[in-house]
Amino acid sequence: MRALLLLLVFLTGCATQQPVAVQRMPQADVPFAFSGRIALKQGSSRDGSGIRWTHGDTDEILLLGPLGYTAARIYRDSHGATLEDAYGKKYSAPDAESLMEKAVGWSLPLEGLSYWIKATPAPQGESAIERNAEGQINRILQQGWELRYGRFNSKQANALPLQMLMLRNGVEVTVLIDEWQAP
Questions:
Q1: Kind and range of the H or E element at 130?
Q2: What residue numbers bound the domain in which 99 lies?
């Protein structure tokens, strides 16, 4: 269940300028897949897991144990969302946010994560963004979350992030992306 908490809160760069409030249209919700690692810090509690996320018309998020076994599988499609843990226990709900609330008692903006993981503001609500010298987004403030981006896979302005830190109410979630793949 701890590995599940890692996914729930999703990653480190330092901001040097004040963010600029913008209402910008995000990129289309394009398919993606990545493999990496995720770490959660909340108070004195710390945990980590491998992660594999495939996003398209459906989402499949695998949280992986140290030897590569699947500790939890989250699946979302147009009919709802399900979570199955390593022991075969299943949870289901009409959407991913309700599923997380039901499974672990937290309501998190999982829909926004499919944008944030690509260093793009989500279409829901206003955002404030900050860019680095290469024009890449290195900080987003949205929906009560602060998202910081450390490294990218190239120097281009539209490069994909390799490191993301999510901060909110004493919760820190770090995602390190080892490889982006086409789904």
A1: strand 127-131
A2: 2-181
